[in-house]
Amino acid sequence: MQFVFSEEHLMIRKAARDFARTECLPGVIERDEKMIFPKQQVKQLAELGFMGMMVDPAYGGAGMDTISYVLAMEEISKIDASVSVCMSVNNSLVCWGLETYGSEEQKQQYLTPLARGIKDGDLYIGAFLLSEPEAGSDATSQHTTAEDKGDHYLLNGVKNWITNGSSASVYVVMAQTDVAKGPKGINAFIVEKKWPGVTVGAKENKMGIRGSDTHSIHFNDVKVPKENRIGDDGFGFTFAMKVLAGGRIGIASQALGIASGAYELSVNYAKERKAFGKEIMHHQAIQFKLADMATRIEAARLLCLKAAWEKDQHQDYTLSSSMAKVYASETAMWATTEAVQIHGGYGYVKEYHVERLMRDAKITQIYEGTSEVQRIVIGRSILK
Ligand code: CAA
Ligand code: FAD
User: pLDDT for 32-76, tens place per residue?
Assistant: First the structure.
């Protein structure tokens, strides 16, 4: 066993770190406050090859491994989790799913521009549409229907909480084609936002990741060509679960970045802020907080890297990705709360960034499977 990054990994981490500091940090407080989608930053990420990081270069990707993806996600999430969630969804939930399970035609037509993140000079990204008003954790309870009409399906229903909802051009949509078959009657489809019958609901006004554009998406008699179904008939739920196993590595890395961003700010602050005649880091209560933060963050990082390594080795990573996600997200919530405490009153105002990180941390315990869902996945694996 070797705990050593390659030269390439270190270069990618540095590129992501430099990008986050120079391009994402300016304006991050304003984007959060005014709910501005970070379009310019996401376009620049695409130019760096970070929107299709793991995709084969033959399909417009950068051909990097999952370890590189974890490193890049951590660095960008330290600064702006609204940028990194967009990156995570496009890489893990959209591109990986299409590359692994899509047909050659789907890869040529959709994956290639999505992995580049740019088409005809404009942003071209995807979204993943599983959740519904009444189907979140209980994801098999799909109410969106896709009726088989011979050469096409007719799609009807509503999807909720969709990340990249208005900025995406392409949606990967799960829908029920045969209720009698339960989860085996669910299919996944590639749907273009511009098609007749597709409408985007109002932008959600959220606690955190406020720059990210979260919307409901409505389908009213949308004609979806048969060739836009992903995989064999009935593969949709398994597809969603397989895709989410990888997605959870991305969100775990996002949580890791939020936690380590808060930790770095806290170390710097504790070295400067004086109380009772010395820098607060010399008060053992503060030092112990920093020690616990550093320890838990390192444990979260190792879980993320283990899941990524298993994925790169083509091993089963379902269990590791759930462990990484539940642990990293709970670490992020705890560490950001401690970071606010270390900053005292200054931690409670926007200029010091940690209050935003604390608000951003919360979503990592909810999306791509709540902490309870991750424990269901882990628990079932123990029972096996
Ligand atoms: N791989 C392959 N197949 C799987 C699977 C996996 N990891 N997990 C389940 N399946 C299969 C099962 O084998 C089963 O098929 P059989 O009946 O043939 O055995 C079928 O799918 C149904 O599975 P379960 O009976 O286990 O289903 P369940 O109703 O008990 O639910 C669950 C399991 C883990 C709770 C699942 O519903 C789940 O993950 N829920 C959370 C949904 C979620 O994560 N949503 C995220 C939306 S995307 C998002 O949030 C993006 C973002 O914010 C940025
Ligand atoms: P519910 O499933 O109703 O859960 C409510 C509570 O009950 C939770 O604490 C949950 O853990 C708990 N619970 C439910 N079932 C059980 C059980 N069996 N055992 C124990 N506890 C349980 N979805 C997408 O498809 N695509 C996206 O891009 C996307 N982006 C999102 C972005 C944001 C900002 C948000 C807020 C959500 C996003 N989601 C997205 C949806 C997200 O995945 C769901 O919110 C999440 O899966 C939880 O579903 P729910 O909100 O319906 O909560």
Answer: 999 999 999 999 999 999 999 999 999 999 999 999 999 999 999
- Number of domain units in the chain: 3
| Average of per-residue pLDDT values in the chain | 98
Q: Determine contact, residues 366/161, Cβ cutoff 8 Å.
A: no
Q: 136 lies in which domain range? A: 126-234
Evaluated on CA atoms 155, 161, 165, 170, the torsion sign reads negative
Q: Is 82 in the pocket of ligand 2 (CB under 6 A)?
A: no
In a domain, 255, yes or no: yes
Q: Pocket of ligand 1, candidates 238, 318, 363, 376: which has the most ligand atoms within 8 Å of its Cβ, to mutate?
A: 238
Q: Is residue 1 part of a domain?
A: no
Q: Are residues 197 and 285 in the same domain?
A: no
| pLDDT recorded at residue 138 | 98
Query: Does the pLDDT value for residue 268 go beyond 90?
Result: yes
% of the chain at pLDDT higher than 90: 99
Tokens of 170: 């392409």
Q: List active site positions.
A: 368
Last residue of a domain, one of 123, 139, 167: 123
| Domain at 369, CATH number | 1.20.140.10
* Structure confidence by residue, pLDDT tens digits, 204-231: 999 999 999 999 999 999 999 999 999 9
- The CATH number of whichever domain residue 165 belongs to comes to 2.40.110.10
My answer on whether 74 and 168 are in the same domain is no
Instruction: For residue 239, tell me if it sits in a domain.
Output: no
* 251 and 349 co-located in one domain: yes
Output the residue whose Cα is nearest ligand 2's atom 5: 137
Nearest-5° Cα angle at 76, 73 to 82? 95
The predicted structure's pLDDT at residue 174: 98
